[in-house]
Amino acid sequence: MSSIWQEEIAAETRAGGRISDRFIVDKVRKAVLTQRLPPGTRLPEVALGDIFGVSRSVVRKALTRLAADYVVTQQPNQVARVRAPSIEETRETFAARRLVEGEVAALLAGRLDETQLATIASLVEREAEAHACGDEPARIEHSLAIHHLMAEHSPNRVLGAMLTDLILRTSIVIALYKRAGLASCYLTEDHPALLAHLRTGDSEAARRCIHDHLQALENLLDLSSRETRIDLMAILGQREGVTE
Amino acid sequence: MSSIWQEEIAAETRAGGRISDRFIVDKVRKAVLTQRLPPGTRLPEVALGDIFGVSRSVVRKALTRLAADYVVTQQPNQVARVRAPSIEETRETFAARRLVEGEVAALLAGRLDETQLATIASLVEREAEAHACGDEPARIEHSLAIHHLMAEHSPNRVLGAMLTDLILRTSIVIALYKRAGLASCYLTEDHPALLAHLRTGDSEAARRCIHDHLQALENLLDLSSRETRIDLMAILGQREGVTE
DNA sequence: GGCGAGATCTTTGTATACAGAAACCCTGTT
DNA sequence: AACAGGGTTTCTGTATACAAAGATCTCGCC
């Protein structure tokens, strides 16, 4: 019935800011991340326009950018849909992120100042607390913040931007392929260990730490290819759009 | 006075194909690569629309996608311009490409079939011939084809797509920062050596080969930061658009 | 001669209209 | 009951109109 973004749109317009394509990109991205927009969801331009109170022009630009970020697929003359990365692509995305984030971690080791290290330390701690409280959304948020911080502070900005993209993409597939029974993808020791290596400046240890961390994360997923868990037909067959 | 794309547009329309945003993206990309559109060139939407015979809607989508590819910059309420990557970004782009293409080469080593190897061998040979003939544009084309072929056949498609992007970006900065006196960026032994490693399947040798090749390429550029060769003011100050 | 204020022009941002493609539904037939 | 066909609906592709932001130019002043 009602849209997912009621309050945020109201807040934005109340604050005097007019809705731009960037706003829509952010909101859709976040909704995909949190699985409020599951893969295959139809994103018709007019519906989105009505929801956000803008015309198709703005929505169109937003969808084009989301397609460039691999969040949605856009085929000619067809409605845009939330992308459903395959198992194969999931493995490849993880491999790419291991390579890139490993390098960023190595570059970053020993080059962060005390303030930055303190920020990370605080995030690591808050992630552990959230996990202890069973507040999984908060835990995910803090975990993402740690990785995003690395991407943002990467001495190599090009690699940093690439890492930002890969973090988004891996988050999507984690949400998608999380093993059914698993409550959380928390790995107790990984982030503290990473922080230690970043502090001491051991580049190769930091790289290995990130590598193993991401490998462990991937191993937590249900990527058994025998029964394609993402049944494309089932997903793409239904009519659900952005309103329910 | 007249546009750079006269013939190609005529050919496309004659062939019955209507001009799409993809067509424009390709043409602008190529023009930037070959420096027919130097950095800083203004790309007004109406002018492009007139040239390609389409309305601003199509041009707009093309520009958005070019911006996502880092080929042009789009600032709110300002005309889109061909991007002029800084020296710093150039170094970072090369570093990123070394990382990614090195990995792709390592993955690819020993996994190409005879047909694919033969294709590469032919390209390597033709590149050498073109260089001998002094036909630099042809030489560049064949060299690019070799690297693109690696990107396309990458077992990891995600890394392959990233590599495709990085090849474009490095090509742009090579054109930008090529040392003034240098006729060609040809390195006689690198591509044959790479081919040999791909054939024998020595992953680490292939990785090192790519790494050294790209490092040598970067060293051929004039990245002396003391006098910023790309004088932003000089470039952005002038009025030249896409027509002359 | 240099500099600033205002008018003018250029260019983008957004909405909207219309045409065409795709999806859907309903009906009639086998 | 399954299926093919045609009409309807939905949705995208493209062009265009208008408003607002930015750039430029001119003129008057110091």
TrEMBL record, chains A, B:
<dbReference type="InterPro" id="IPR008920">
    <property type="entry name" value="TF_FadR/GntR_C"/>
</dbReference>
<dbReference type="Pfam" id="PF07729">
    <property type="entry name" value="FCD"/>
</dbReference>
<keyword id="KW-0805">Transcription regulation</keyword>
<dbReference type="GO" id="GO:0003677">
    <property type="term" value="F:DNA binding"/>
</dbReference>
<dbReference type="InterPro" id="IPR036390">
    <property type="entry name" value="WH_DNA-bd_sf"/>
</dbReference>
<dbReference type="InterPro" id="IPR036388">
    <property type="entry name" value="WH-like_DNA-bd_sf"/>
</dbReference>
<dbReference type="Pfam" id="PF00392">
    <property type="entry name" value="GntR"/>
</dbReference>
<dbReference type="InterPro" id="IPR011711">
    <property type="entry name" value="GntR_C"/>
</dbReference>
<feature type="domain" description="HTH gntR-type">
    <location>
        <begin position="18"/>
        <end position="85"/>
    </location>
</feature>
<dbReference type="GO" id="GO:0003700">
    <property type="term" value="F:DNA-binding transcription factor activity"/>
</dbReference>
<keyword id="KW-0804">Transcription</keyword>
<protein>
    <submittedName>
        <fullName>GntR family transcriptional regulator</fullName>
    </submittedName>
</protein>
<dbReference type="InterPro" id="IPR000524">
    <property type="entry name" value="Tscrpt_reg_HTH_GntR"/>
</dbReference>
<keyword id="KW-0238">DNA-binding</keyword>
